[in-house]
Amino acid sequence: MAGAKRGCLVVLAMGLLLAVLVAAAGAWLWQRQAQFATTPVTPSVASVTVASGDSFSTVLGKLRAAGVDEGRDLQWQLLARQLDAAGKLKVGEYALEPALTPRELLLRMRQGKVLQYRITIVEGWNIRQLRAALNRAQPLLHKTTAMGDGELMEALGFAGQHPEGRFLPETYIYQRGDSDLDVLKRAHAAMEQALSSAWESRAEGLPLASPYELLTLASIIEKETGLAAERPQIAGVFVRRLKLGMRLQTDPTIIYGIGSSYDGNIRKSHLTTDTPYNTYTRAGLTPTPIAMPGRAALRAAAQPAAGDALYFVAIGDGSGAHAFSASYAEHTAAVARYLQRLRQNRNEAVPQ
Question: Which of 195, 216, 249 corresponds to the end of one domain?
């Protein structure tokens, strides 16, 4: 009887020892797993891409190829199950930052926090400048490079529409796999919304027959404005000129008409040669916008400042500000002051 008791005690002791060993091993493994999950990775490249149909093993293989050597495959698989990420990784490109831990990386992939890129359409850009910027943007897919402007607008679903002025200047976010058409579709939709809003809020009595005419006027205002606060005043000058039947006589329209051959100088021949964009020889607005106007220019065109000024000329002090005049005599005097300051600045710039 005593021997049986001793045997039971030995078995019990061995069971307890085994349980302690299992618990200790479990604690050690848990500690190792926790340490793995929170230790920053050390990749050799900046990003990794999860493609459609990739299994977790495939993604792990891509991480290994990207220099992520931390942890055993089993540890990654256990972590993925713990985070409910296995089989739920979102397609896209993910940044591999040196301070990123395996836990943070898998959470990003599960939540779809992909690497994002930005492209800014600058206020006053024309369509040539916009397309050149898109062609330079990486890693944007370039689907429109070989397209003419007409083909581009057809690809966007707006066949026959002139592209100038149709894309709202803003910063647009895209990710790997997006194309220039994707960005342009969003910029076009944003301009449609901004233009509609400006048209709905327009002041009464504007000499504008359609939203497109407002867009055209806004583009001219955008190109003439050197000081943002002056947009409504410049708009007021152009609106009063349109009401009186005066020619707009604005140099940016001349430059747009010259096109890519413009060398930085407007000559007398440019002012006297009649073209659809010569507002010195033709009354009214140009046949199309001449640039991409921003929201502020659209608002200025829709709600121009009141006043009696019909002329403006740069002050020439480097601020971009203008002198506004109600009469031609006042304007002539302002032009003389501008030219005098211009000569003075040039003389001061010549080495003695």
Answer: 195
